Amino acid sequence: MQRRMSTLLWSLAKENPWPGLALASVNRVVALSLVGLSLLQGVTISLLAWLHGFIDREAVPIKRQAQR
Q1: Band of pLDDT at residue 1, cut at 50, 70 and 90
Q2: pLDDT tens-digit profile of 36-61?
Q3: Which residues have CB under 8 Å from 13's CB, separation 6+?
Q4: pTM metric for this prediction
């Protein structure tokens, strides 16, 4: 049964490549979306860390800043 099924799928893929191309396109869109989301998340986290450090630096009293 397994051999017959793979032969059937292979013959369909040779006759009509569109389903495979459509699946490859969907995979590419999903991969690019995930890469974009991870880059956006990295930029967001770094900006929040910078903002947190900037706010903490401003909150230090002037006398303590002079001692640094």
Answers
A1: very low
A2: 999 999 999 999 999 998 888 766 56
A3: 19, 20
A4: 0.57
Query: 19 CB contacts (<8 Å, ≥6 apart)?
Result: 12, 13
* Contact (CB, 8 A) for 20 and 13: yes
Share above pLDDT 70 across residues of the chain, in percent, rounded to a whole number: 63
DSSP one-letter code for 60: S
Q: How far is 34 from 43, CA to CA, in rounded Å?
A: 14
DSSP secondary structure string for all residues of 14-59: HH--HHHHHHHHHHHHHHHHHHHHHHHHHHHHHHHHHHHHHHHHHH
